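Thread: quick sanity check before group meeting

JM: Hey all, I'm pulling together slides for Thursday and realized we never actually wrote out the predicted structure for the chain we discussed last week. Dropping the sequence here so it's in one place. If anyone has concerns about the input, flag it before I start.
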Amino acid sequence: MANINHKPSKYMLNLLHVLPAFANEENKIINVIVEVSTGSLNKYEIITESGQLKLDRVGYSSMAYPFTYGAIPTTWDLDNDPLDVEILSVTEPLVPGSLVEARIIGAMKFMDGGEVDDKIIAVLANDKRVEHIKSYKDLGEHFQMETKYYWENYKALKKPGTGAVGEFLDADEGMEIIRESQERYDNVYRPKFEA
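JM (edit): ok, ran it. Output follows.
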């Protein structure tokens, strides 16, 4: 059973605001709330204020998500959303809304419609099948090409040319992006609900 450091409540907790970003910072393991499972055309998003899962849209083309996608609790990216994470090499679909622990293996710089929308790259922390993957480079060059192609074209039928992939970064740089987004959460978002 997964337990969190929170007193019992008769109300449903919003995990985006009660879980820490890191489950084990020393081992680069983060908490992730799954929004979209690999192979889905549906784009679900967690409603930041309440924690429920909402169908944001059905994909505009037949391009399905080539990875599991989710949000890192108590983080705030420059696009005014929790920081995004791609979880690679998932063998069984993960249920949207579920909580998983993932190990950081890198990050990807991304601009979406002119806004910074960086992506953390990870694998499941408790899957022995991916234990040997320590860096996004271990996924091979095709992973980078496929991921770049996906992000640069996933909105092409609705808003062509809005996605621009920058460089891929190592796990330590991914950790820094998370720490910056934690600071932003504490300074920008947290004051909104503590007032």
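AS: nice. The chain has one domain: 15-194. Strands lie at 22-24, 29-36, 42-46, 53-58, 68-71, 84-88, 99-112, 115-116, 119-124, 163-169.
JM: adding both to the slides.
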